[in-house]
């Protein structure tokens, strides 16, 4: 009898894990090939039988609240098109999507030019913005190619927030990728992937994020996964996926469905967090402290070669600094062992 009950429990657990319903919203009319590539990769995950596809081009509008509310996860795929219907309600965000998220819905937002459709970098988000309130972004910093000297980003690299199920580095079907967005997260947000490698001009710019609180649970990828190079196998994580594209989709979907990206596990000490605004800079910028934990600490600025080029002290929660004497390039601000990149234009 115990064996029967154990088998029944295991069966119920297995069905529960893989009976999650997923809505894939295809909001991209640039290239049907991209849509097919992403949809086919999703079909190679363990969620293949759980996915319903909604195409905004075919339907002529975004899905309604009544339609999306029955799904455990919404994957909103914009590809390269900066979306057709995602911004129908302006920068405050789709009303039905906000209601869905507040009712414990989960969203994976994907695509190039999603931010560029409404904003010009650099831009600091406010509480008027969907991207601040629900995606957890504090600023829009740059776009590859546009702001990196017309080179494009050769790859993106995962941060220590992510498990081995995620590809460690992702490269593209092109030598470099154009028009992926670099952002900063607000307090409580997570940096998942950054641009690389270290020799790239805009290395360290965040291009995939996660933000979760009582009103939202969103992973955002500001690149187009359909452009990932799949010519070689991926990391063969727990699902033994066949390439980096499938592994990324499997791992990201798992993380949202199973709530394995826990805010409390954030490796960045929120008690000692700080921001640099604006960034990139011309001459002047501000160091903003989230609280008084770093007050009266010294800060140092290093060149890309590791030479100390500036130092100062944090006497207030907002400290203004001028780097007019320094040439254009990449620098690193260090405070009490925490380091962030500065780009001087």
Structural class: alpha+beta
CATH architecture of the largest domain: 3-Layer(aba) Sandwich
Could you list the spans in which at least 5 consecutive residues all have pLDDT below 50? Answer: 1-18, 234-241, 262-272
How large is the count of helical segments? 7
Q: What's the order of the H and E elements?
A: HEHEHHEHEEHEEEEEEEHEEEEEEE
CATH-derived topology of the largest domain: Rossmann fold
Task: Write out the strand line-up for the largest beta sheet, numbering strands in chain order.
Answer: 2-1-3-4-12-11-10-7-8
The radius of gyration computed from the alpha-carbon positions, rounded to a whole number of angstroms, is 21 Å
Number of domains in the coordinates? 2
Q: Got a strand count? A: 19
Taken from the alpha-carbon principal axes, the silhouette is globular
Helix content estimate: 10-25%
Describe the sheet with the most strands: 9 strands, mixed
Mind telling me the CATH class of the largest domain?
Answer: Alpha Beta
C-alpha end-to-end distance: 72 Å
Q: How much β-strand is present in the residues?
A: 25-35%
CATH homologous superfamily grouping of the largest domain: Class I glutamine amidotransferase (GATase) domain
Mean pLDDT: 85
Question: What labels describe this entry?
Answer:
Immunoglobulin-like, 2 domains, disordered N terminus, Rossmann fold, single chain, four-stranded antiparallel β-sheet, 345 residues, alpha+beta
Q: What this model shows, in words?
A:
The chain has helices at residues 2-17, 32-42, 56-59, 65-68, 95-102, 130-133, 244-258; strands spanning 22-26, 51-55, 73-77, 107-110, 123-124, 137-143, 155-158, 169-170, 181-185, 189-196, 206-213, 216-221, 274-277, 284-289, 298-303, 308-313, 318-322, 329-335, 338-344. 18% of the residues lie in helices and 30% in strands. A hairpin with a 4-residue loop joins strand 15 and strand 16 (308-313). The strands form four sheets. A nine-stranded mixed sheet has the order 2-1-3-4-12-11-10-7-8. It has a four-stranded antiparallel sheet with strand order 16-15-18-19, with no helix packed on it. It is globular and about 55 Å long. The protein folds into two domains: 18-265, 3-Layer(aba) Sandwich (Rossmann fold); 270-344, Sandwich (Immunoglobulin-like), CATH 2.60.40.1930. With 345 residues, it is α+β, with helices and mostly antiparallel strands. The chain is built from seven helices and 19 strands.
């Amino acid at each position: 009898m115990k064996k029967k009950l154990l088998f029944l429990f295991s069966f119920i657990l297995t069905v529960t894990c893989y009976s999650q319903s997923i809505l894939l919203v295809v909001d991209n009319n640039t290239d049907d090939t991209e849509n097919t590539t992403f949809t086919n990769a999703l079909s190679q995950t363990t969620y293949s039988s759980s996915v319903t596809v909604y195409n905004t081009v075919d339907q002529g509008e975004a899905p309604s609240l009544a339609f999306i509310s029955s799904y455990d996860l919404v994957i909103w795929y914009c590809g390269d098109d900066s979306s057709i219907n995602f911004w129908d309600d302006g920068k405050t965000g789709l009303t039905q999507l906000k209601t869905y998220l507040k009712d414990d819905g989960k969203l994976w937002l994907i695509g190039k030019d999603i931010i560029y459709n409404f904003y010009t970098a650099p831009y600091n988000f406010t509480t008027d913005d969907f991207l601040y309130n629900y995606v957890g972004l504090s600023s829009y910093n740059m776009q590859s190619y546009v702001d990196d000297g017309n080179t494009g980003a050769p790859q993106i690299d995962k941060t220590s927030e992510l498990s081995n199920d995620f590809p460690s580095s992702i490269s593209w079907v092109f030598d470099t990728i154009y028009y992926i967005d670099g952002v900063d997260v607000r307090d409580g947000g997570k940096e998942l992937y950054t641009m690389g490698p270290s020799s790239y001009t805009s290395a360290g710019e965040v291009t995939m994020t996660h933000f979760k609180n009582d009103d939202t649970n969103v992973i955002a990828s500001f690149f187009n996964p359909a452009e990932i190079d799949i010519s070689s196998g991926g990391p063969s994580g727990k699902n033994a996926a066949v390439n980096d594209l499938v592994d990324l989709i499997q791992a990201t979907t798992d993380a949202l469905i199973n709530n394995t990206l826990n805010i409390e596990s954030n490796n960045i000490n929120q008690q000692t967090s700080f921001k640099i605004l604006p960034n990139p800079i011309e001459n002047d910028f501000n160091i903003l402290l989230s609280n008084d934990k770093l007050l009266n600490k010294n800060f140092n600025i290093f060149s890309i070669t590791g030479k100390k080029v500036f130092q100062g002290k944090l006497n207030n929660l907002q400290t203004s600094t001028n780097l007019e004497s320094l040439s254009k390039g990449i620098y690193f601000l260090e405070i009490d062992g925490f380091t962030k990149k500065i780009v001087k234009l």
